[in-house]
Predict the 3D structure of the following.
Amino acid sequence: MEQFEYDIQETQQGERIDKVISTINPEWSRTQVQQWIKEGNALVNGERVKTNYKCSNNDKIEITIPDPTDLDVEPEEMDLEIPYEDSDVLVVNKPRGMVVHPAPGHPSGTLVNGLMAHCNDLSGINGVLRPGIVHRIDKDTSGLLMVAKNDLAHEKLVNQLVEKSVTRKYTAIVHGVIAHDHGTIDAPIGRDPKDRQSMTVVDNGKHAVTHFQVLDRYKDFTLVECELETGRTHQIRVHMKYIGYPLAGDPKYGPRKTLDIDGQALHAGVLGFVHPRTEEYLEFSVDLPEYFKKLISQFENSR
């Protein structure tokens, strides 16, 4: 159970309480916040309020985030590709289309289900729903993830993410032909006020930086390598859309007329970090998935 306190700012006076709370942390959905308010987990000046309560300047909000309801997470035998594993950490190449951890609507078939069948010594810091999970990639993004097998490893790996010392490089295909060879996108990301299920660049968002380099150019698309300095939700997808080159196949942030490939063309191909016990720097890379290679071949043949 986590607790937060927040003082209403003058600029937020008159706004609905559920809207204000949902902007504090972009990971909190409006629906989730409304449920907290109804259950008395979000108080204003120590009192319960309705979701449409209009805030006053200097109102004090107390938010108590309840522990997640435990789901019955069952181990499932899967043919996981694990490039590296020892007693502290493992690195797994997540296939495209696989959800990382169980959630309502996805109780099984997730990476966590497969990891639990593979080993029984995952870190418990993130609870039963996300054992060992240090960071995530989207369902339709393939590639490398580091997984902690004990709490010490988990804490040290998370600290590296906070310190921005983890190497995370992604290969992507984007719409349009990028003229410059490389660039940096430094733009804050938060939840889209017009669509709570999406992220976007907003002034009050979290600091987000993506570096990109052009690998090849085709008739209507560009092959790029993106390196994350920060790790915000949907960061590469949002940032590339922001500069006018959305990811090919992206159903949420791409154009309506895009490649019919069931999700964004994005692959986490390189992952590097300092081992939590030996303090040795380790770096891993995995090849592009077959669908990605076929797309590149098609583009090359049509030039």
Notes: Residues 166 and 273 are 5 Å apart (CA to CA). The two ends are 56 Å apart (CA to CA).
